[in-house]
Structures are given as C-alpha cells and as structure tokens.
Amino acid sequence: MGLLGPPLALMGLVWFLSAQPDLNSGLKEDFLLRKCAHVTEYALLTGLWARAVAGLAPHLRRARSTPLCPAVATGAAATVALLWAASDEWHQTFVRGRVGAVHDVGIDAIGITIATVLLLGTRVGVLAGVRARRP
Questions:
Q1: What is the rounded distance in angstroms from the CA atom of residue 6 to the CA atom of residue 4?
Q2: 80 vs 106: CA distance, rounded Å
Q3: Rg of the chain over CA atoms, in angstroms?
Q4: pTM score, two decimals?
C-alpha cells in the first residue's frame, strides 16, 4: 500500500460517506458526533499526508542528502487536506439530501490545524525521523 495508500484510502472513505443521502444516526447527539468526526478525520488525513510527503520527498528531490523541512511537508499536507475538505463540500451539493456548507470546511480546518500544531510542535510525531536527520 505504501505511503500514499493510507491518505488516499481515507480520502476515498470521505468521498463515499459524502455520497450517502443521509448519515443521521438517530441519536440526540448526532450533530455533535458528526462534527467531531469531521475534526478527527481531517486531523488524521493531514497526518497521513504529512507522513507520505516526508517519506516520498527524498525520492522526488535532486539533493537526496538534504531532508525535507518538516514545515514544508506539514504545509503541503495541510493544503491537500483543506482542498479535499472544500471539494468534499462541493461534492455534497450534488447529492440528494445533502448540502455543501462553507462552515463545514471551517470545522474540517480545525482538525487540520490541530494536526499541524501537533506535527510541528512535537519531536515524537510522524516527522520525527526527518527532524533527526537535519544538520
């Protein structure tokens, strides 16, 4: 599955769930649960993309001895996740029973921000190996 498999699989799951006309669980807390799921899935997506970008970067760069800056990998991951959040909401405008909402992209951005802070603020993250090799 490699480094690209996990983030692409999660993106596929998000797309599949967005194509469902109704995801209401019937629980009283349904709204809160769905928003927490959005935050969690986009935090995870950001982390998976950061791992993929950091792992693939040496294969794509000419100067292989110089590791990719963690901020660049995390920024690229956050950008991909945010673009996917926006495209997911746009996709929902075509699904009967669903609506695309800009505020949902904002909720997804909370998860993206949490992941970005964690990735850049700790040495025990998916990019720890990249940081360890920095001169």
A1: 6
A2: 15
A3: 16
A4: 0.82
* Torsion of Cα atoms, 118 then 105 then 45 then 37, to 10°: 90
Tell me the residue length of the chain: 135
Q: What is the pLDDT along the chain (135 residues), one digit of tens a residue?
A: 688 999 999 999 999 999 998 777 777 888 898 899 999 999 999 999 999 988 887 666 555 555 667 788 899 999 999 999 999 999 999 999 888 899 999 999 999 999 999 998 865 455 555 444 444
Question: What token pair was written down for 131?
Answer: 């940081």
Take residue 85 and report the two structure tokens written for it: 């959040």
Q: Which residue has the tokens 């029973």?
A: 97
CA distance 112 to 47: 9
